[in-house]
Amino acid sequence: MAQAAGGVGGEAAAAALRAVRSCLAAFPAEARELGLMESVPLIDNLPSPLEFYREWVCPNKPCIIRNALSHWPALKKWTLRYLRKVVGSKMVSVAVTPNGYADAVYQDRFVMPEERHMLFSNFLDIVEKKVTSPSVFYVQKQCSNLTEEFPELLGKKPDAVNFWLGESAAVTSLHKDHYENLYCVISGEKHFLLHPPSDRPFIPHKLYLPATYCISEDGSFQVVDEKAADEVPWIPLDPLNPDLEQYPEYAQARPLQCTVKAGEMLYLPSLWFHHVQQSHGCIAVNYWYDMEYDLKYSYYQLLDSLTKAVTMV
Amino acid sequence: MAQAAGGVGGEAAAAALRAVRSCLAAFPAEARELGLMESVPLIDNLPSPLEFYREWVCPNKPCIIRNALSHWPALKKWTLRYLRKVVGSKMVSVAVTPNGYADAVYQDRFVMPEERHMLFSNFLDIVEKKVTSPSVFYVQKQCSNLTEEFPELLGKKPDAVNFWLGESAAVTSLHKDHYENLYCVISGEKHFLLHPPSDRPFIPHKLYLPATYCISEDGSFQVVDEKAADEVPWIPLDPLNPDLEQYPEYAQARPLQCTVKAGEMLYLPSLWFHHVQQSHGCIAVNYWYDMEYDLKYSYYQLLDSLTKAVTMV
């Protein structure tokens, strides 16, 4: 930082900027070589809280725990038929989209789903294809009665417990959360595509006006802008079919892909980018724990700011 | 990173470089606000390994544990008189310098101490001022027989256990280690001046030719260059009396200072910069545990590279 206060000649500045860009471009590979595997490690049983913290949470590394849920009655009990019997008459809020993408970039907008209130049994009719619809339906429901269910792996209560049930066309676009995430599959399977936070320099972000899908009388969807809303930063890239002409730097990113099967739990660390697909009618429950806003978080914020600073040009 | 491959105009590059420098200059304060206290926290008793990992090691935060050593017989037993009786006839290697600074920048060299082999009792004569010398003496001795002494706070065996005994003039210059450090004071006290790794942008580093103090026949010291040795990166700044004209950016750094007294243990996290002074004849033992080369380490390396990149100009 010596001489940071003084002005700098154009050529010297360009050289320094090239050096900064080299550092940022080399960083994801360096981080990967030190810490990460080629694939998401599988472990057989729940580790102790100490082991879990030392091996996975503190180093911010994902893993799949195969027999994490073997004691859960839900593993055998929660069939669609059972859910219809027990909660069929409850109203639920369902995310409805024309294409399966809720919360994703579409036509230069950040588009959120239509939130449709319906009977759970009507939603199940669609999942079970007793009724056909051109739209794609996905249920996410907070269910805090499951809060007590989980071993205190993280030494604190979860901030939220979510129930997920949806069609195979329902996709979660690439994004990250400020949570430590324990993702438990009850039936079917989930397919995750993951990027560590250190891949940030290769993952494009842009600002988008927010909008919402609204269904018309004729059943077609319109994209309706939110009024007077702030722009939302989101990732325009589809990691399954990346537009490398527009985002050539993504060619250097290295996604990890994994499938989480019924009875298994994925530890998805905070700030990891994730894109999620699922088998039709997959049932899952996930636990969100507030992350620690510590040195790792500060470093990520720095990486984010620097990536933006060199992308300004 | 978009357009990272293309050339960039001088003015645009200068603007981007200014933005990068702003990020680096703002980072230390942001990291401090999220994670650190105004002073090193004192805790009363040894925490469990899980608590220690969650609260201190993983967030890379120092603390002083006040009653960590109360069960150590050494606390009462290790007087200078006792040490003379038990190990007085052993040969030890003593770091001898004209000024108390072993491993520090002097006259544009990185100067290491004369390593003098002497009877421990002769060294004690100097510490107890039975013999006078214009030089400053400091003993550091590995003592692996203490390896078993310590509770397994870190879940692994230490890489090294060191015994320290020296004069009040013996100072350890500002530097950092790739170790988690448990620093236990047996008698007297140690004074630490600490900087978190996030202060790196404000802490000057330079490359120095290595040299060694050699004592002449007349008792004066000469600085003798090491032959064909690589340059050593070191910190030229004295944090007790910083030259802010030469290193103005250090004015923005925020040292933490603390005193560790007999019976207390400092947890000094990996990669923290530290400068150490002591009371005359202070006896201490420290445990070095290899740090985890994880995401935090990669991020530090990035911070280090970026600081160098913008300082090139």
Question: Explain this structure to me?
Answer:
- The structure is a homodimer of 313-residue chains.
- By secondary structure, chain A is α+β, with helices and mostly antiparallel strands.
- Helices cover 23% and strands 34% of the residues of chain A.
- In chain A, the strands form three sheets. A nine-stranded mixed sheet of chain A has the order 1-2-17-11-19-9-8-3-7. A five-stranded mixed sheet of chain A has the order 4-10-18-12-16, with no helix packed on it. In chain A, strands 5, 6, 13, 14 and 15 form a five-stranded mixed sheet that branches.
- In chain A, helix 2 links the parallel strand 1 and strand 2.
- In chain A, helix 1 packs across helix 6.
- The N terminus of chain A is likely disordered.
- The interface between A and B is large, with 66 and 66 residues.
Q: Kindly report the oligomeric state of this protein.
A: homodimer
User: Regions of chain A with pLDDT < 50 over 5+ consecutive residues?
Assistant: 1-6
**Through-space gap between termini of chain A:** 21 Å
Structural class of chain A: alpha+beta
The number of E-state strands of chain A comes to 19
The greatest inter-chain interface is formed by: A-B, 66 and 66 residues
Average pLDDT number of chain A: 91
Helix-residue proportion of chain A: 10-25%
Tell me the fraction of residues in β-strands of chain A, as a range. Answer: 25-35%
Which shape of chain A, going by the Cα principal axes?
A: globular
The neighbouring-strand order within the major sheet of chain A is: 1-2-17-11-19-9-8-3-7
Sheet bearing the most strands of chain A, described? 9 strands, mixed
**What gyration radius of chain A follows from the Cα positions, in whole Å?**
22 Å
What is the tally of helical segments of chain A? Answer: 6
Order of helices and strands of chain A: HEHEHHEEEEEHEEEEEEEEEEEEH
